Amino acid sequence: MPQQGLIVINNQNSLDAVLAKGCWSPTEKFGTSLGWEIQNLDAEGRFDVFFKGVRQGNLSWDLLGEHNRMNALAVIAAARHVGIAPCIAIEALAEFKNVKRRMETKGVVNNITVYDDFAHHPTAIETTLAGLRTKLDSAYSDGKIIAVLEPRSNTMKLGVMKNALPASLKDADIVFCYGANLGWNIAEALKPIVNKSQTFNDLEKLVEAIAKTAKSGDHILVMSNGDFGGIHNKILDALV
Questions:
Q1: Is residue 117 within 8 Å of 101, Cβ to Cβ?
Q2: Are 185 and 199 in contact (CB under 8 A)?
Q3: Which helix (H) or strand (E) holds 120?
Q4: What count of other Cβ atoms lies within 10 Å of the Cβ of residue 50?
Q5: Rounded distance, CA 112 to CA 78, Å?
Q6: Closest CA to 235 of 224, 153, 225, 221
Q7: Is the distance from CB of 169 to CB of 146 less than 8 angstroms?
Q8: Is 0.85 topped by the overall pTM?
Q9: Closest by Cα among 134, 139, 155, 150 to 68
């Protein structure tokens, strides 16, 4: 990094030990009152942006999750460094439309919402579920979160992170997992949450079980980095 550059740091993920080895560029932290922070988050996802205790504006957008809010702070900080006023950056972010497969609503049938998300490793699964849980809690919704997971990435197929899966699914009320073509036993890995999880190797039986379980007001969150056999439309059809 050049001396005239800026290192924008997430205070929630400490990099102090790394920076201590040598840093010749200015730094700004986000996620802390000493730098950029969020205040007054409401049920609609709006929040105030502060920098070193001074309010910069209010951001309203439809992206869920603390990780997305932290990303917004990082963008505002970086934009300010190159001369874009925070109020302009906030205004621009309010117009941002989420990318495909990031908590994308695929459809609503009988007041049951089906989402698609690219989450395919435990950290992403945990943050995605936490974002949805926060939204439902803010809206005082009593609908269940039904997590539908396909461990499809090469790393997940190898079972490298299988032991982290149960904890990553803590915010789900019910968990369905598709375990076909894995080199490890998904049911064994999910034993710590066996009271709320079911595993399947047959896609059609999985869809049938999901449709029988879901009730009005529930939220079905499908997580995979593949097309998952078109499961989103299969679920929507089965809910009719």
A1: yes
A2: no
A3: none
A4: 19
A5: 39
A6: 221
A7: no
A8: no
A9: 134
Contacts of 39 (CB under 8 A, 6+ apart): 47, 48, 50, 55
Tens digits of residue pLDDT in 135-157: 888 777 889 999 999 988 777 77
What tokens appear for 198 in the block? 């079911």
Q: Are 228 and 114 in contact (CB under 8 A)?
A: no
Measure the CA–CA gap between 149 and 223, rounded to whole angstroms.
5
What share of residues in the chain are helix, strand, coil (percent, to 5)?
35, 20, 40
pLDDT tens for 3-12 read 788 989 888 7
Angle at 70 between CA 18 and CA 91, to 5 degrees: 130
Rg (CA), the chain: 20
Instruction: Give the chain's length.
Output: 240
Please give the DSSP secondary-structure letter assigned to residue 153: S
Phi then psi dihedrals of residue 213, to 5 deg = -85, -40
Amino acid at 164: A
Q: d(Cα 208, Cα 210) in Å, to the nearest integer?
A: 6
